[in-house]
Amino acid sequence: MDLYKLAFNNIRRRKLRSILTTLGIIIGVATIVMLLGVTTGVTSAIKDETNKYMYDVVISPASSTGSYLMDSQTASNIKNRSELFDFREVTVFSEDINGDRLFFEGTNNWKDVKLQNGTYGVVIYQSVAEKYGYGIGSKIKVKNQELTVTGISKDTQSFYVYIDQAVAKQMADNKVSAIYARTNGDPKTTSEEIERQINGVSVETKSEKVNEVQEMTGQALLFTGIIASVALLVGIISVINTMLISVMERTKELGVLKAIGFTNWEIKGSILFESGLLGFSGGLVGVILGIVGIVVVSNILKLTEYTNGMMPLWLILGVIVGSTLLSVLAGLYPAMRASKLNVVEALRNE
């Protein structure tokens, strides 16, 4: 008699219990894949957003000044520094439009603004279009100037309007919110010198910004991993429970197998194979559901370009192998208990 075939038959005989046991593993695995996958994708998006700015330092008004804009004289002093080059200015200001605060951001790098339709020039977020009923050709009056909407962005989260940096700077009385620059020397040393020599500015290096992002995303990965692991642990506990009940129900059957010559190792192998099969099938289905969840979430968050990165091979193989091994370990105690059954007592069992 093939003990592994016997394990398959035992799962088939108790379909409902096996399905419910596997369901716990499916939920745990799907949670792990989806949470870790989406977190990985969001992390990549944030890092790309940080790294796309080719700068070494970013200079902005110090919080102590109480202003979010620096005047032209301060900006000029920064640009006259010999250790800085390749400057990029950004001006951001806000206006109350129909009782809501609308943010205007100047940009010279239009390729980073993802259009839903229209052209570059005056691009509004989709949320702005929906809120005010704006479309391409609509007029927005701000600071006594009338802007004509030329495009609508795919972004929906905030009330933002992108305009040319030259226009934004002119509308903000020739002031800027931040200056990005590259440096010939050590960025950290340069940042300290600028803060010491120019009043009212704060300087942050790219490495500091990247480290800050990495720390936040690392914490997010750890937190989601803990939550997902708890979900999988619940599924593994259900495997232990199921296999213990199975051993108790099959006491006489196992006694017969031992009576006709099956060894303790063969009995153990059958139980472990059965629990491992539950873990493998649950892991496989869980991965499929997790991938479906990732695709749905990436579309909702508009991160479709990172979808493939949300499903790394190490994650998919890791959770399948992990759920299988954990299920085998979960079946270890029931398997040992089954192998230690006394043949005579097992055969007397009703």
Write the layout of secondary structure elements.
Elements: H1 3-13, H2 15-51, E1 57-61, H3 72-79, E2 84-90, E3 92-97, E4 100-107, E5 115-118, E6 122-124, H4 126-132, E7 139-142, E8 145-148, E9 151-153, E10 160-164, H5 165-171, E11 178-183, H6 187-197, E12 201-205, H7 206-249, H8 251-259, H9 264-300, H10 313-330, H11 332-339, H12 343-348
Parallel strand pairs: 4-10, 6-9
Antiparallel strand pairs: 1-11, 1-12, 2-11, 3-4, 5-9, 6-10, 7-8
Helix pairs in contact: 1-9, 2-7, 2-9, 2-10, 7-9, 7-10, 7-11, 9-10, 9-11
Write a compact overview of the structure shown:
By secondary structure, the chain is of the alpha+beta class.
Task: Give a written overview of the molecule.
It is a single chain. The chain is 58% helix and 17% strand. It has 350 residues and is an alpha+beta fold. It has a six-stranded mixed β-sheet. It has a four-stranded antiparallel β-sheet with strand order 2-11-1-12. Strands 7-8 form a two-stranded antiparallel ribbon. Helix 9 packs antiparallel against helix 10 (313-330). The two termini are 23 Å apart. The model has no long low-confidence stretch (mean pLDDT 80).
